[in-house]
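Predict structure. Chain length: 192.
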Amino acid sequence: MSLNEQIAFLLHADKLKNVVRKNKLVSGERNENSAEHSWHVSLQAVVLAGHAPENLKLDTVLKMLTIHDIIEIQAGDHWVTEENETDVATLEAAAAEETFSLLPDNQAAEFKALWAEFEAGDSPEAKFANAMDALHPMLQVFGPNASGFCHQPLSADFLRRKKAPRLAPYPDLWAYAQSLLDAAVRNGYLMP
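Prediction complete.
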């Protein structure tokens, strides 16, 4: 392995701290950056791992969550809708190719495969990683003592439809997510 290539990748990855996400911190004082999100969603996965299937490879989940947003250095953070889904996927795939090519070949192949596995969301590890990624902004915005600030007007019904495919396989987590949405409606943060 080339240490120089690995260091170049790590220094490039530091730019993730400059990618501002659309979600605010729990305090509401500022938007979080993508590096903060990657750390916090990884910690969330460790804390909530007991809600995953017993044979889950948590190390693989953590690798996915650590690298899944690195592509935002080139691609930016996007709110994905039906209208822009294909364009965002194309942009992110190109960014993944460029970003992971900074690594030595064997690590580049591993990281590309992990990123693709996360995006496909088919393996047990990718499903849990995606559930964590879906739950994280809900906790940030609608969790206890959160600001309730949402970057665009949304309805609880819309978020239920958007989040259900990723969270419903984990009944306790899905029930909690729905309770957050119910509270957000009661508090006037979301339309029903």
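Summary: The longest helix spans residues 124-142.
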